[in-house]
Amino acid sequence: MDKKTKPGVILRLWQWFRRPSRLALGTLLIIGFIGGVVFLGSFNKTMEMSNSEAFCISCHEMRENVYQEYLETAHYSNRSGVRATCPDCHVPHEFVPKMIRKIQASKELYSKVFGVIDTPQKFESHRLEMAQNEWRRMKKNNSQECRNCHNFEYMDVTAQKSVAAKMHDQAVEKGQTCIDCHKGIAHKLPDMREEHRGF
Prior knowledge:
- The protein is mainly alpha-helical.
- The protein has 11 helices and no strands.
- The protein folds into 2 domains: 23-56; 59-199, no CATH class.
- The termini are far apart.
């Protein structure tokens, strides 16, 4: 009797699973919707937290090296009161490029965990390579992060110093991007004698 009952129960469960009732289907949809909302909310909050200056300088490598340099620049303190923070310049605003950049940042986490740049001496020895990676990324995306605030189309070159106006006009004509001329705008330049290697 037990042997006959068990296949019947299993068969009924299998049929129920293959053809769920409206109640079961509705429950699944509601649970799926709530789960999706919770996942998206958590994902968005995580992205928001990891795109903050506090997150960027939570590593002493950044806080004690490039952050200190940034504090001395016009991107930190200026007459207009507009401040560009770490993610404004180093993380794209658009979703897909932002996700790609976050994946690339996993290499930086590797460097953090294994102490590749954990002393000022190690940091300096890798500064050129790190700068070239960032310059290459910015060149590739036409300095998009710069252009979120600065745009050739909106520049009043007549209000600029004559040298700057001339250089910006030439940059437009040559199809150059911000990083072609403005390396070292927010951080100390690396030893440029080796710049020809890789960039």
